[in-house]
Amino acid sequence: MEFFNSALGKNISFVRPAYFIISGFIGIPNIKFYYVFLFFVYVVSVLGNTAVMAVIYLDHNLRAPKYIMVFNLAFVDLFGNSALVPKLLDIFLFDHRYIPYNDCLTFLFFCYTCLSMQTLNLVGLCYDRLIAIIFPLHYHLKVTHRFMFSLIASFWVFVIFVVLIAVGLLTRLSFCKSVLINSYFCDHGQIFRLACNDRSPSFDIGTSLPVLLVWLPLMFILFSYLYIAYALSKVATVQERVKAFKTCTAHLSLVAIYFIPILITFTMSSKIHPNGRIINLSLSSVFPPMLNPIIYVLQTQEIKESVKKLFKIRNCNCSSNLSNFSVGGD
User: Fold this and answer.
1) By the 8 A CB rule, do 181 and 194 touch?
2) What is the DSSP annotation of 279-294?
3) What CATH class is the domain 19-299?
4) What predicted TM-score, i.e. pTM, was given to this entire model?
5) Domain definitions of the chain by residue range
6) In the predicted model, is pLDDT for residue 313 greater than 70?
7) Could you tell me which residue ranges the G-protein coupled receptors family 1 profile domain spans (predicted)?
C-alpha cells in the first residue's frame, strides 16, 4: 500500500523541470563521426527491414504463421530505429541537447517499447522453432495464424502497459537539482536517479523491467534450445539433428547479436566507463535492427527463394516491356 501511496502522491506537488540535458559522450574528440556512422547504419536498417516486410507481403508463400512474427520483428526494428536514431542525430549532431520534459518521457516510452518488443519477438520465434522440431505433426494445429496474431497482440499490450507504468511513475518524481542525463537518450535509470523525493517505486519498476523483458525471455530461449537439443539427441540421427538445427541458425544468430552486448553491459556496468557503456548500448540498439533482415535473407531458404523469384519476375517484366517497345519501334 505504501508503494502506491508514494507513487500516486495525492495532494503532493511535484517539481518538474522545463527540460532535461542529454550528456552523451564525454571528452571524445571527433565523436560526430560516430553519429554519422549511426546514420548510415540507420539507412541500411530502414532499407533492409522495409525490403523484408515487402517480400513477406508480396509473396503468398510466406504467409505462414512464422513469417507473421518475422514481419512484426522487421516492423519493430524499423519503428524502433526511426524513434531513436533521428532524435539522437538531432541531439548530438545539431547540438540540441536540451530536450523538454514531456518530449523526453515520450522519447523514453517509444525507445523502451521497441527495445522490449525485440526480445519478445525473439521469444515468439523461439516458440515457433520449439513446436516445429519437438511436435512436427502438431505444428499446424498449435501454431496457427490466429494464435500468432494473438501472441503478437498480447506482447504489444503487455509491453505498452509495463512501459506506461514506468513512465507514469517518473511523473511522480521531483527534480530539484541536476537535470543532466548521463546517457545518449532519455534513459529510465538515469532519470529517476536525479529525483530528490522518494524514488523507490521507480527503482522497483526499474529493477523489474530487466527481469521481465530481458532475463525471463532469455531463460525461456535457452531452456527451449536445451530441450530441443535433448529431444534430438534421443530420437534423431546426426544428419537429422544437423538439418533441424539449420532451421534455427537465423534465430540463434539474432539472439546472440541482441543479448550478448546487453548482458555485458548489465554484468560489468560498474567496471565499464560511461563512454563505453554508451557505445555498447547505442550499438546494441541500432545494430540488431540492421543485421536482422540481412541474417534472415541469407540464412532462411524460403526468403532467399522468394527474393530470387521476385527479382526474376521483375526482370521478366522489364524484358517484356523492352520487347514491346522494340516491336512498337519497328
Assistant:
1) yes
2) HHHHHHHHHHHHHHHH
3) mainly alpha
4) 0.86
5) 19-299
6) no
7) 48-296
